[in-house]
Amino acid sequence: MKNKIAVLIDLDDTLLGNDMDHFLPGYLHALSKTIPDVPEKLMIKELMAGTKKMLMKTTAEYTLADVFNAHFYPGININKEELENKISRFYEEEFPKLKTLTTHKNEAVTIINTIHQTGHPIVVATNPLFPSAAQYHRLTWAGFPYPDGLFKDVTSFENYHFCKPNPEYYAEILFKHDFLNMPAVMIGNSLSDDILPAEKLGLSTYWITKDGKKHPDQGILSAAGDLSGVPAWLEAIQDEITAINWGQNLQQSIITLRVTPAVFDGFGMRYPSSILDDKPKPNEWCVKEILQHLLDADTHLNLARVRKFFNELKPFIASLDLDALTNNNSEPTKEYQLVLSQFFAIRAELINQITSATPEIISKQAVHTIFGPTTFGEIIEFIAIHDRNHIQQSLNVLSK
User: Fold this and answer.
1) Which CATH number fits domain 250-399: 2.60.40.730, 1.20.120.450, 3.20.20.70, 1.20.1440.230?
2) What is the domain partition of the chain in residue ranges?
3) Helix, strand, or coil here: 366?
4) Looking at the whole model, is its pTM more than 0.90?
5) Is the peptide bond before 131 cis (omega within 30 degrees of 0)?
6) CATH (residue range 6-16+102-237)
7) Between 20 and 30 A from 224 (CA), which of 246, 341, 362, 390?
8) Strand 316-317's sheet: what is its strand order?
9) pLDDT, tens digit, for every residue of 37-67?
10) Closest alpha carbon to 70 in 89, 82, 91, 53
């Protein structure tokens, strides 16, 4: 049986002809007319500054929309609540008129239908710098009324925590949609936003480019060419492509550590507390207990282990039964959001410690009471494996 491949595909200038250098001025001018009390120059200045904040975001806490709103509305000196109705009407009535600034790609619908019929799950991996309303309108212009059953997701700034070109953006898609252990690819026209960061994570890629020449940093199963070549490429690699090898390097482990809290924040946004507190069986953990377990792991084990590499010449890593620790010490009455906020804080502290490690610290040898000789990178990978296992466990719980 051929592999099913998680297909991540860009929207602008991939499925829809949309040069942002042409589209963006029209969008900004139309939006500024919706807010007549704010000078257009100020509105554009603060919107672009808020967008830059999203582009620079590398932490899991807060969605991209939270980060944008926290800058934009104070910048124009208007409360968000005062403009919500106007902004909603803008996306309902004015934004659709911007379709004339884009061009329809006739082959896009045929190609997506072909991929869908083959059984590959598809996510529209468009940069989540816009609200969902804007994403869905542009998808409709490309010939895909949403929802139409073709796509698992269309990424937008309300429900994602990272954006392109961060590899964490691609990892968040994979973790969120249970693509952790299946082959996945990224298809897009931007070398810097679509291709290189996806390759860095470990995805195979298809670069939409006129000359059809691969970039030197694309992998052996990756390719380049026009959009029409995508179905044949997927067919050609189906028997060879495998899931990401998650243990390749320290940077890949750090990506996992950054994305894990974002995934659990996503669970909190999508599911009521009654679901997150619900045990599949009496002796199994609910999602909140899994989150508590990850918090306990960072608090009582992971941070201390990492610090040993900073403080000891030859660190000694002792084993600890974390399952027992969580079962004995967790507070079942704590709200999910409280556990999550504590996890955000301790995980940020852990990542800051890891990323401050010098080459000398990273090269240190350690001894683990069970595994014997080990290294800084292996300890971080143990944490990342633990994260991914419990994300998978949570997805299994929620699927029931």
Assistant:
1) 1.20.120.450
2) 6-16+102-237, 19-100, 250-399
3) strand
4) yes
5) no
6) 3.40.50.1000
7) 246
8) 316-317, 365-368, 372-375
9) 899 999 999 999 999 999 999 999 999 999 9
10) 53
